[in-house]
Amino acid sequence: MKCIITIELGTNAVRIFAFDLNGVTIGSMKGYYPTFHSQPDYSEQDPEQIFITMLYVLKNLLNEYIHPKKYTVLSVCFSSSMHSTLAVDKHGIPLGNAFTWADNRAKKEAIEIKESTLADTMYNSTGTPLHPMSPMLKIAWLKKNDSEKFQQAGKFLTIKSYVVHQLTGEYMIDYSLACASGMLNIHKIDWEPEALAFAGITTDKLPTLVPVFATAGILKKAYQNSLGLSADTKILIGSSDGCMATLGAGVWNNDRATITIEDSSAVRVVGKKMLHDEKKRVFNYLITEDCFVSGGPSNSGGGTFEWFAKQFGDFSSAYDLDSCMNSLLQEASKVAAGSSGLLFLPYLLGERAPIWNPDARGMYFGINIKHERQHFIRATIEGILHEIYSVGKMLNEHRHISALSVNGSFATIPLCAQIIADMFNKTVYVTKNTNSVGIGAFLLAATEMGIYNSLDDAAAQTEIAHSYTPAENQHRVYQEFFGIFESLSHKLGDEFGKIAELQGRG
Amino acid sequence: MNSSLLTPSAAELQLFPHIIELGTIKNTCIDLNAFPVVTISGIKILHVLDGKFQWCLNKKEYIFYPGDVALVLPGQIFGSSNGVLEIGSFSFLHIAAKWSRGEIFWDKWSSLSASERTAISKILLLNDPLLITRSNDVGKIIKSIQQEISNQEVGYFARANIYIDEMLITLARQLTRQNNPGRDFSKTFMKLEEALRGDISHQWTVDEMAALVGLGNTLFNEKVKSYSGFTPLNYLINIRITEAIKLLKKDTASITSIALDTGFYSSQHFSTTFKKFTGFTPAEFRKNNSYAK
To answer: Quick check: B245 and A310 CB within 8 A?
Structure first.
């Protein structure tokens, strides 16, 4: 029997899945790793801890599900969160921790480039919004603020490139993650000289650019032995978690969009061309030469609702967040759409798409004497989803969206999926397998193997478990409130800036 | 002043050399220069009964209201910054204890086991501020100790000491509950991670780790496993190996000293565990990743 293993190096944990060649899950395991916030705006992870966690979880998964049943592992396909940046010395040894996607230390660099004449040409060539998340800006930050580390750096990697280098000795980066670095010219599929110049580096400081289907070298002998894998097991470089979640949701080259809501969220479409947004709000990540995943990321999502639950939910026993959130959802479902006119702006962590304002902050608006606890619960959920709707609306300016596919732990909650259907007034599909990132990576590996002719074919394999039909009357209610939601999120720009500054002081 | 105070010279305390002071202060008028900031030896516990006090505890100012407890650890400074003793009353207990090598030690009068002592000492040292709000339990225990010692009924020696243990246990539990309200496990887990990394050479036990976050062992194991995918001990080993890898790559320290610095019993223990996690022995790993020229 043959199998494919997928390894997702996610924001908080590594998740490893084993699939048979029909895409049926044989087993899965996860291992958590921490994120360190030594200062506001800093968000770091320990690359050695990520590597060792990945290795240990992989080994346990193989020993528990794969080796006892004598499966042959044909390939191991990687995916990872985007925008991580890790400087290593000339021997490949990490120079401190990796900066994660959520690291905002390069704020000044982002403003500098946004206000420069480079802004337009840079967005046109890289297709990536200019935001502190971008590794190009993080490297520029290092150059200015930690010149010792910058000078010592032999390479600037992503976490995935580092993990793969540990396993095979090769330095590689796939097209989609390279896009997320803000330094790839997506039309020429090569590093963009202007972006490298801004970062202050040359191509030799970056890993080798390869397609998502590339084999990233051969597993080192010692790991072949300790893991019980052979030299024939292909190590596939794979893609990013966002692109894989889109592929795994079965949305590919049609007029459907995917909505992924985990802690944070994103709305994405796939097409043959870059979506050129004049306001530079839309990201465009290249998967293959003629395939772009375009969309907008939001900082709000399940994490925002978790914040609410932790502050205002009832905990019957210590740390039982799940049952606390379930009872909140039940209460919310008893309130009519629109929460009797209570609105919530979910900008607890600032916001990326569509307003791209790191200083944005949260707010309840329209509170009156009749509002009760359950209105606040429902308003919180609706606020998170109004924000998703506004990202979708932005994409709809570029491409007609006729249906939606949702995934991620928050979006697939039935109440949320129904609200999404009502807000967009479009049918919402939920795929059978909720682990879209793993499925996406499986489909990529299976395509590489020739099981499917193309990613389009592969995406067509995903099965739909449920669908939610929009209710016209609810849609009208949401539309009315959304108008106020949208104008508030734009009108409050100055106040957001002032309050963020005061909060930053202390 | 209408107060009671026992000091080591008191006849009642002859059997209790570990009690430095035990008493209740009732202050009816503002007393200048009566409560200066001093360095405290041993552990001092104060429970406010009445009034409002502004005290400086470990270099920070706090306001104590009735029911609040100030816990001062060996070597910390404590008192009123302007020296003033405000109107009100409080009871207190001051016991002998020493701080050394990141742990607080107290004598054999205590019937707490060695690992319980370590766990309690860790909790006291790792929590800040040492202001415990609304803890009338602590007040009751001080009162019970006072009664045992003044009434001297049969078994009072044993019972008073049991109450002091009870006090330390109560303080430790309340501190962890106060600082880990049972809502945000990711935050609690991060605190644990920091504590482990902060003292990775220590031989942490599951009891100590669970106590630190204020959970019983069973619930602790379950929560850590579902949150991290690891058992608590495997998570700890994971951190040890992570740190060991960094040291091995640096190519300076000997493998034995890396083993001990990262909390393994011996280089043998290090070697087998390291191999189990990575597939390499530490020596092989170093050779594979060695760039020494």
So the answer is: no
